[in-house]
Write a structure and sequence with these properties.
0% strand; 207 residues; mainly alpha; elongated; 11 helices; Serine Threonine Protein Phosphatase 5, Tetratricopeptide repeat; 2 domains
């Protein structure tokens, strides 16, 4: 059995060659095949080849957009946000810019399990949603972004309350009052949100 295993490993590796210098359509089709097989790591690898060998090909932005959606469907939100962000920086036109920006905001929202004690992430997400609402007041995605904006605001309130509680325990009253002053009291009182659910095994290491 060991000899048989070694035989297959040897010839399997021997047949596997490094691919390069292929047409853009070949790399693009390989990306689609890997996505259909559920192998996003392989799809990312083929995209690197497509972008390296055919940087000006119209298939590059198309593949970038598809990979962003594929990673989003697999709950790989960091990679999805990366592809959408790169697409916006390099290829987005006025015709589809609001849609791609909406997808990036949606990706961050899906990756936002709870307030996560990440001030920078929440602040940036709020800034992104505000920017979208100002730039596209008539977008069909506006109601969804408004909802996401509200959720991030509530997350920020919860985070500030938690940080203030930490400083209260430490006896740092000035710091506690600083974080409490950042809370939108009217929003909190009107909505009366339920605190994020944190499992007991997480609370052991939580604030």
């Amino acid at each position: 059995m060991c000899l048989l295993f070694a035989f297959f490993m040897f010839f399997g590796c021997a047949k596997k060659e490094v691919e390069y210098n292929k047409p853009a359509a070949y790399w693009y089709e390989s990306i689609i095949k890997e996505i259909n097989f559920g192998n996003l790591e392989g799809a990312d690898g083929y995209f690197s080849s497509l972008q390296s060998e055919h940087i000006n090909s119209p298939l590059v932005p198309e593949a970038m957009f598809i990979l962003g959606q594929a990673h989003m469907e697999k709950d790989e939100y960091i990679l999805a946000a990366f592809y959408f962000d790169e697409y916006l920086k390099r290829y987005s036109s006025l015709a589809n810019q609001d849609y791609v920006r909406f997808l990036k905001i949606l990706t961050n929202f899906y990756g936002f399990k709870n307030y996560s004690k990440d001030q920078e992430f929440i602040a940036q997400s709020i800034a992104d949603t505000q920017s979208f609402l100002q730039a596209y007041p008539k977008s069909r995605y506006k109601p969804y972004v408004e909802y996401i904006y509200l959720k991030f605001q509530l997350g920020q309130i919860e985070l500030n309350r938690s940080i203030a509680n930490v400083y209260k325990r430490q006896g740092k009253i000035a710091a506690q009052e600083e974080y409490l002053s950042r809370i939108d009291g009217d929003l909190y009182d009107n909505l009366k949100p339920r605190p994020s659910h944190i499992p007991w095994y997480v609370r052991i290491f939580n604030w």
